[in-house]
Structure formats: structure tokens, C-alpha cells
Design a protein that fits this description.
By secondary structure, the protein is mainly alpha-helical. It has one domain. Helix 1 packs antiparallel against helix 4. It is elongated, with a radius of gyration of 19 Å.
Length: about 130
């Protein structure tokens, strides 16, 4: 009996989301937004951003900078808001931080879908 040779496995299409580029950035922004439901996903997103930073065209790099800064600045704002909950203003600030975070993700996704760089990726605001 002759054995049939099986062809080598083809790479899966889903593996591309790990490579630097538009799809990877979409995943990062979605992981950030999913963090409102599943708390750990923004951490996964920022790790992906750090891993893939420096390996893309310049306009994509602006998105990685934007995404990384969104994570760290958002974390800083959230910690300040959490500390200020003791004087009750923190609850309002936490809501403002959530809106700020969501808007930065949406602006990033919109610019990415248009194929545009982030205009000011180092910004602390929108």
C-alpha cells in the first residue's frame, strides 16, 4: 500500500492580525474598546502595539504612537480619577476619561480606515 503525501499546511489567514499594519491596529483599537467589558484586553492591546512598533511605514507608526499613548495617558487619568473619588469629583472625571478614551479609539479607527496618519500622535487630548 502506498501512502499518500499530504501537502504542507497553509498559513491561516487569521495569523495576519499579529503582523504590523492596518489589521493589527484595528485589533489593538478594538481590544482597547473591549476593555470596558473585559478588563484585561487593553493590556493585550498595548503589548501588541509595543511589539509591532517600528516595523511599519511612517503613517502606520503614528497610529502605534497614538495607541500606546492612549493606553498610558488613559491609565494615568483613570488613576487620578480613582484617587479623587474620595472627594466625589472622581466619579465625574472617570466618566470624562471613559469618553476621552472611546473618542481616541474612534478617531484612530477612522483615520486608519481612510489610510491617514494621526495628525498629532503625541497629543494628550483629542
Amino acid at each position: 500500500m502506498a501512502q499518500e503525501e499530504t501537502p504542507p499546511p497553509q498559513p491561516r489567514e487569521t495569523d495576519r492580525w499579529l503582523e504590523p499594519g492596518k489589521t493589527n491596529l484595528q485589533v489593538i483599537y478594538i481590544l482597547y474598546l473591549a476593555g470596558f467589558v473585559i478588563g484585561i484586553t487593553p493590556l493585550i492591546g498595548v503589548v501588541l502595539a509595543y511589539v509591532n512598533r517600528g516595523r511599519s511605514p511612517a503613517w502606520i507608526e503614528t497610529h502605534y504612537t497614538w495607541a500606546i499613548r492612549t493606553f498610558w495617558i488613559g491609565l494615568l487619568y483613570a488613576l487620578i480619577s480613582a484617587l479623587l473619588t474620595f472627594i466625589l469629583i472622581g466619579f465625574l472625571l472617570m466618566l470624562a476619561v471613559a469618553v476621552w478614551f472611546i473618542l481616541r479609539c474612534i478617531f484612530g479607527l477612522q483615520a486608519l480606515s481612510r489610510g491617514e496618519p494621526m495628525k498629532n500622535p503625541e497629543s494628550w487630548v483629542l
